Amino acid sequence: MKTIIHNIKTIYTSKMMPPVKGKDMAVIDKIDDPYLVIEDGLIIKIGQGDYHQDFENDINLYDAKQKIMIPGLIDSHTHLVFGGSRESEFSQKIAGVPYLEILAAGGGILNTVNATRYASFNELYDQAKKSLDEMLLFGVTSLEVKSGYGLDLETEVKQLKVAKALNENHPIDIYMTYLGAHALPKEFKNKRDIYIDQVIEDLNVIHQEKLADYVDVFCETGVFTAEETKRILLAAKKLGFKLRVHSDEIDSIGGTKVSVDLGAKTVDHLMALTENDMTLLAQSNTIANLLPSTSFFLNKEYAPARKMIDKGMALAISSDYNPGSTPSENYQLTLQIAGNKLRMLPSEILTASTINPAFSLDIHDFVGKIEKGKHADLLLLDCPNLDYFIYHYGINHTYSVFKKGKLLVENRKVVDA
Ligand code: NIG
Ligand code: FE
Q1: How far does residue 219's CA lie from ligand 2's centre (Å)?
Q2: Does residue 292 have its Cβ closer than 6 Å to ligand 1?
Q3: Which of 41, 93, 232, 248 is most deeply packed, by most CB within 10 A?
Q4: Sheet of 413-414, strand order
Q5: Ligand 1 atom at shortest distance from the alpha carbon of 99
Q6: pLDDT tens for residues 180-203?
Q7: b vs e for 119-148, b when ≥16 Cβ sit within 10 Å of the residue's Cβ?
Q8: What gap in Å lies between CA 160 and CA 177, rounded to an integer?
C-alpha cells in the first residue's frame, strides 16, 4: 500500500554528492509545500502542491500538519553498549581532575570496563535498548555503535552481540565497530605489545563471526601511539575491515595522518588537529567526525570547524554518546552545540548529520537524503524553519519519525506496533 505524506511545510535536504566538502556543506535543497509518495519503504515521488493526482483508493494518507521535514538523522559515532554509569566520578570531574588522569588512576574507561565485564548480556541489552529508544525519539534512524568496554575478547564479543541483537530487534539500523584498542586494560599494564598482539589476533574472530564492519583505535597520549595505531589498522585493513579512528582529541600525535594514509572512513574528535592534517583531510575522502558535546561535557576546547570548512574539509557531527565524556542521548542538543560553539550554519549542520555521516558508513546510496529511490527515513520537526531547529536549543523538536516508510514516533511518543 502506498503512503502519501501531505501538508508538509518545507523539506530541507542536502543537495551535493558526498563527501560534501567545505562551502558545499551549506548548499541544500529547500522545497516548499511538498508531498511525498512512499511505497515499499521507498520514496517514489516528491510532488509539490495538490497531491490528489497521486491519490488512489487504497492509500494511507498522513497529514504532516505544516511541520518541516528533514532526513532521519545519522549519528555515526557512539559507544551505546556499556555497563553501569560514572556519576561516581562527577565530583572529581567538577573539582577539575583531568579526564586522562582519572583514566590513569584506573577510573574512566577502565571503570566502565569493570562494569561491562560484570554485566550480563541481558543487562547490557536492556540498558542499551533504553538509550536507543531515547535516540529514536530525537530522530536518529541510523547509528554507529562501538565496542571497547571489554578489552578482552569475551566481553568485546558480548558487546557486539548486544549491538547485533538490537539491530535485529529495533527499528534503528546499527553499524558496528570493534574498538578493542580503546584503552590498555589493567592486567596488561606493563605488557603493551602483548595486548596489541592480542587485539590483532582477536580481529580474526570478530571477522569470522561478522560482528563488525569497522575497526577503531583511540590514538592519544597515554593510550595508543600513532605507530601502535598503524599496526592495528593495517592488520584490520588486511582482513577487509573499514577504519574509523579516535584522533587528535587532546594531543596531536600523528593519528590523523596514519588514518588518512590508510583510507579511514572517519577520523573523530580532532580538537587538536594541525594545519597540515587539515590539508591532508581536505584532499582525502576521509570524513572529519566532530563531537562537540564531548567538548561541552569535558569543558574542553571545540574543534576549529570554521577553519576546517574554509580548508575544504568534509565534516560530520556525532553525539559520541558514552558514559564518561558525554553521557547524553540528545543528538539534537549535539547539533545545537555545533551551531553555537562550532559556529556551523544550520545548513552545514544538516549536511553533517545526514549525507556526510551516511557516506562515512557507506549507506549514502539509500539514506541521508530525501530523494526519489531513497529509503523513507524521515523526521518531521515541530519547527517553523531549519534555523529554529538549531537555534531553539535543549528541547526535543521531533514531531514524528518514519523508518523505511513506517511511522514509529508521533507527537514525540513511540507509536504502538
Ligand atoms: O570518544 N575518547 C575515547 N573514548 C570515548 C570516551 C569513553 C569514556 O570515557 O567512557 C570518547 O570520548
Ligand atoms: Fe568516542
Answers
A1: 11
A2: no
A3: 248
A4: 28-32, 10-14, 68-71, 378-381, 398-403, 406-410, 413-414
A5: 9
A6: 999 999 999 999 999 999 999 999
A7: beeeebbebbbebbebbbbbbbbbbbbbbb
A8: 8
Q: Are 255 and 228 in contact (CB under 8 A)?
A: no
Query: What domains does the chain contain, in order, with CATH numbers?
Result: 3-71+369-414 (2.30.40.10), 73-360 (3.20.20.140)
d(CA 201, CA 223): 19
For 60-88, what is the HEC assignment? Answer: EEEECCCCEEEECEEECCCCCCCCCCCHH
Quote the CA–CA distance of 164 and 145 in Å, as a whole number: 10
> Ligand 1: does its nearest atom lie under 6 Å from the Cβ of 325?
yes
User: For residue 183, how far is its CA from the centre of ligand 1 (angstroms)?
Assistant: 10
Core vs surface per residue 73-100: b (16+ CB within 10 A) or e:
bbbbbbbbbbbbebeebeebbeeeeebb
Residue type for position 141: T
Expressed in angstroms and rounded, the spacing between residue 392 Cα and the centre of ligand 2 is 26
pLDDT in tens, 240-252: 999 999 999 999 9
This prediction's pTM? 0.97
Is the shortest distance between the CB of 324 and ligand 1 below 6 Å?
A: yes
